[in-house]
Amino acid sequence: MNPTERIEIPHSKGKLVKLLLLSLAFVAAGAWLLLSRPESDRSIFNDPAARSVAGGLSILFFGWSGFFFARKLSDKRPAFIIDRNGIEDNSSAFPNGFVPWTDIAGYSTVRVMNQQFLIISVHNPEQYLARQTSFLGKQGARQNYKRYGSPLALSSNALPYNLHELESLLRLKRAEYTNNRVTG
């Protein structure tokens, strides 16, 4: 790899706009559940408690998601950077930040329902778990570690990239870096 080469992958604005609109639709549906009166006696949503819980959870979760998508739409930083030193993730709500090549043990792609994730295995997962400062970030990283053996999981949501292609690119660039480091 050319020592000055730097690959910057932007946020997928199209995907983020779609996700923002979907979030807003679910916030509106949650508000409708909270504010409207049921039209049928047979619906599960006839129960005021069920309507309040479903509406409130919808507003909270999708409101937070919409805030995240709007924030990422205005973020000028690249979603993902690959350079001679390693990778830098800014693609998620709780980004992993910089990961040097020497910390990376391997990669795998997993599918959870209809969502793809690129798992980046690291030699020192505890260090990356400790990086997360927010409660939700810590919980997400812990769940990734329990399920996939690494706290680092990239979603395809914010990236304009096929994760299998990104995995191949990471393998290639890591090999180039390792070879240059050994011979250089």
Your description of this structure?
This is PH domain-containing protein. The chain folds into 2 domains: 8-74; 80-183, no CATH class. It has 5 helices and 7 strands. The chain has helices spanning 13-35, 48-74, 125-131, 135-148, 163-183; strands at residues 6-9, 80-83, 86-89, 97-100, 104-112, 115-122, 152-155. The protein has a 4-stranded antiparallel sheet, with helices on one face. Helix 1 (13-35) packs antiparallel against helix 2 (48-74) and helix 3 packs antiparallel against helix 4 (135-148). The longest helix is centred in the first third of the chain and has 27 residues, at 48-74. It starts with 5 loop residues before the first strand and ends with a helix. The mean pLDDT is 88.
List the helices and strands and how they pair.
Elements: E1 6-9, H1 13-35, H2 48-74, E2 80-83, E3 86-89, E4 97-100, E5 104-112, E6 115-122, H3 125-131, H4 135-148, E7 152-155, H5 163-183
Helix pairs in contact: 1-2, 3-4
Keywords: Membrane, Transmembrane, Transmembrane helix
Transmembrane segments: 16-35, 50-70
InterPro entries: STM3941-like
Question: Can you give keywords for this protein?
Answer:
2 domains, four-stranded antiparallel β-sheet, three-stranded antiparallel β-sheet, STM3941-like, transmembrane helix, 184 residues, alpha+beta, elongated
